[in-house]
Structure prediction request, 455 residues.
Amino acid sequence: MTNSTTAIVGIGATEFSKDSGRSELRLAVEAITAALTDAGLAVADVDGLVTFTMDGNAEIAVARELGLRELRFFSQIGYGGGAACATVQQAAMAVATGTADVVVCYRALNERSGRRFGQVAAGLAGNLTTAGIDNGWHYPMGLATPAAMVAMIARRYMHDYGATSEDFGRVTVADRRHAASNPKAWFFERPITLAEHQASRWIAEPLRLLDCCQESDGAVAVVVTSLERARDLPRRPAVIAAAAQGSGPDQYVMTSYYRDDLAALPEMGVVARQLWRQAGLGPADVRTAVLYDHFTPYVLIQLEELGFCARGEAREFISGGAIELGGRLPLNPHGGQLGEAYIHGMNGIAEAVRQVRGTSVNQVPGDGPVLVTAGTGVPTSGLILSLPVRCSRWCGHASWPSAGLVSGRYSSQVMPNTHKKIAHNCRCVTSGQHGSKRPDRPVRRPQRLCRRRGG
Prediction:
């Protein structure tokens, strides 16, 4: 989609709480300011803003508060949490096409102290919109909260594949264990056992309280720019190796009950196929994944749609601590929305960036790519973030100056269709070293910083 020419170069967030004590606009500005500071950029560098249609802070209002004089790109993505990764996709496309140079994606909400998504909003069924018409079919039947809507899918999944409430609980146990060692998480130092999950009260059978994500106040922002510009910034960039959106057949918002296979999330399958194709990777290449965990059953179904296991086999896949730190696929090292905070998935993107940088409090070893997904049960989106490409096929030069250059933590994998462009930024091109040696016989010499300035 962007040919790995764009990257996330800054992340910022407020504290995560149950009562922020300030407006959502102020939260947004605080997170954006922190992200720009992290990126080493000034407010004047920003010429694009992207957010959710559900965000209460219009781009022009945020621009006024930040002191931005002009915007060349602004966009909003629909479908609630399904927008999270798509905000980065839109920003990356804007940068890759030259529409904008520096784009900030943000989400701010007082979802606990303000409007609580888990409560019934009867007025939504009376709106004279297509969404209002859709809601009019199921609100009278009592399907008026996200938990109730997901419970229908979860029950069918259990019926079809033999999954149990304990299987769902293993997702919560893993998330809370990770959150317990994350000082920024709401549930810091508060892990749970599977027995505690099973003892939690029903919300909408088969979903228990601890199957449902928490309600949070807070904000998160990320900064997207070109990989070329990132070379002059202080932080190691998280390269956007792939970004995609997806909607499935007979798609509704949380109530896609009219499909041939009810116990599935085909919209995530649409996203998955695009991600693997764009990045030239597969599930086996992923080091860690940040999967949208608003409700635990959807984590299992996502694993299947993404290709980590076959349909109906996720309960076996996650058994034995496989999704915990040290397992074969650690999920949500920050604690996810069940453990850290519910910021509509944007805090998951920030964690993926930390994993690429090597700065997470629960760092997963290795240098492989990181997968991120957005909200499910709705049209959704996803990302694959990776380390900057290393020019190892010929000369071994690194395309990004960082501490990782010394420690040898850069991946030697060359992503499809990217090496040629990055090679042109390498000084050995002009000296004839590229091409003068066969690709299967890399030149062994001290590594140099591949920048347009400096050797």
The two ends are 31 Å apart (CA to CA). Confidence is low (pLDDT under 50) at residues 391-399, 401-455.
